[in-house]
Amino acid sequence: MAVIDRGREVVEASVPASTLAVGADGALGAPNASSFRSPLRFNAKTGLVIGDLVAVGVGQALTLALIPEVRTTEFLILAALALPVGGAFLARRRVYNSRFITRRMDEFRRLIEATIRIIVAVAMLALVAGLDLPRSWIIVNFLATSAALLLDREFARRTFSRMRRHGRMRRRVVIVGNNTEGQALEEMLAQDLDLGYEVVAFVDDVTRGVEDCNDELVSAFVADTKAAVRALDASGVIIAATAMEIGSSNRLIRELTDAGIHVELSSTLCDIAAERLTVRPLGRFPVVYVEPVARHGWRQLAKRTFDLLISSVALVLLAPVLAAVAAVVRLDSKGPVLFRQQRVGRNGGLFDVLKFRTMVPDAEDLLTDLADQNEADGPLFKMKDDPRITRIGGFLRRTSLDELPQFWNVIRNEMSLVGPRPAMPDEVEHWSPELHGRLRVKPGITGMWQVSGRSESSFAEYVRLDLYYVDNWSLLVDTAILLKTIPAVAFSRGAY
Q1: Is residue 315 a part of any domain in this protein?
Q2: pLDDT digits (tens, 9 = 90+) for 437-465
Q3: What is the DSSP string of 233-293?
Q4: Are 141 and 191 within one domain?
Q5: What is the domain extent for residue 461?
Q6: Are 410 and 307 spatial neighbours (Cβ–Cβ below 8 Å)?
Q7: pLDDT tens string 239-296
Q8: Cβ of 76: how many Cβ atoms within 10 Å?
């Protein structure tokens, strides 16, 4: 048995490693689950509470300022009462427990739900006090308070993210399981620093593969895991489910939680949206039910309606921009204004994607001579200083203005606003059978790959993100991607 330390001296202890056990005591940025008196944790959680109360106060102040008829002493007292009421409902919605608000959308949903409860509670107090409550008060109060809370939490999230990237506010965790799954978990946590985890050790489970795990062996495993967590000042454990025998995993989880060590157990599932998972009992086993992917029926109609509406409005509003770009492309170099290229659409159908021309007219003929300078892995071709790009073409690519004509592809039902990147036929020839699954949906103007680094992403990441979208599509996901596209384009992240 051995503990494999991830950055400090190797701890001499017989510790089995089988899974990734991550401690999550609930406080954002808490570095150590064993001490609730940690100054950093206290400051982080207290800062969130104070920020939320200030946001609730701002919401009440804006309501009083915008509605003249409520500028009375009674309503001022009511606004003051909203602060403790708000604090109670926010705490009840678990917005101070990081495991419930890891994702931005989960946090925002809980904040909105808490805001509704705050408004209802304060309105009931007003009715009890016999106050004449204007309907405008409810609307303005809800909008002002929810907006203030969302802005407050977005600022806090970005602040925590910056601190974590600089090595602060990270949870030290031990991964139980030094197998493929455990290594993948460690790699993911190391790459995504915003999650706030620092893996300090792996614990290897020597009972793995042993048919009859005797009680003495399991007891040693449990004791050694606890010893590693304490010795390395970790906040908890993440257990890789595939790395442990059933007899030792139950015992380990029971002993660790009884000792006040926080435990997270991986599900062995990867790249499946949490919204599709439901944990339910099946006899003695808690099982995870995976909701089937729903791409048809009203969802498909809603997506098509959404695409048509946004694309039509965009073409009308951007008509002056389209005309200006077309004129500049015409004046910059010889050749057509629009570039048409055959791409592979839904179910393998071919269509011509439309773009403003950013390269010389014979660009595709010159590609063979540049093949050895490809800077992308896989079947994609990317070259940062591509000599085929025209003077204005570089600017159009950085700003994504060259892709505006694709709104017409959306109207023609060849593309969607959001979806996998439209691939060329020669790329598809090199795809693995798994990657052909991305053809189950229409390609998009933007997508997960584009907003997650675009050309900076590896081909493996390109495959993973596209398949994740295909398997987990929803209108909410589409909306989130569209919103993320704005800063991705504005700051030209990964574009060339």
Answers
A1: yes
A2: 888 899 999 988 878 755 555 677 778 88
A3: T-SEEEE-GGGS-HHHHHHHHHHHHHTT-EEEE--S--S--GGGEEEEEETTEEEEEEPPP
A4: no
A5: 298-490
A6: yes
A7: 888 877 776 778 888 888 888 888 998 887 877 887 788 888 888 888 888 888 777 7
A8: 14
Within-domain flag for 280: no
* 278 inside domain: no
Residue whose tokens read 């300078």: 373
CA distance 172 to 201: 9
What 3-state DSSP class applies to 343?
strand
Of 249, 268, 287, which marks where a domain is finished? 268
Domain-ending residue, one of 125, 145, 164: 164
> What does the block give as tokens for 444?
């998009």
Q: Which pLDDT does position 105 carry in this prediction?
A: 82
Q: How many domains does the chain have?
A: 3
Residue with tokens 């229409």: 442
Considering the domain architecture, whether residues 103 and 197 belong to the same structural domain is answered as: no
329 with 393, same domain: the answer is: yes
Co-location of 474 and 355 in the same domain: yes
Count CB-CB contacts under 10 A for residue 316: 8
Which residues, 6+ apart, have CB-to-CB distance to 204 below 8 Å? 1, 2, 3, 4, 15, 16, 17, 18, 177, 178
> Of all residues in the chain, what percent carry a pLDDT higher than 70?
80
Whether 289 maps to a domain, the answer reads: no
pLDDT class of 368 with cuts at 50, 70, 90: low
Q: How confident is the model at residue 233 (pLDDT cuts 50, 70, 90)?
A: confident
DSSP letters for 364-431 = HHHHHHHGGG--SSTT----TT-TTB-HHHHHHHHHTGGGTTHHHHHHTTS-EEESSPPBPHHHHTT-
Closest alpha carbon to 217 in 225, 122, 431: 225
Distances (CA, A) of 255 to 175, 290, 468: 16, 29, 36
Per residue in 83-117, pLDDT (tens digit) is 999 999 999 998 988 888 888 888 998 999 999 99
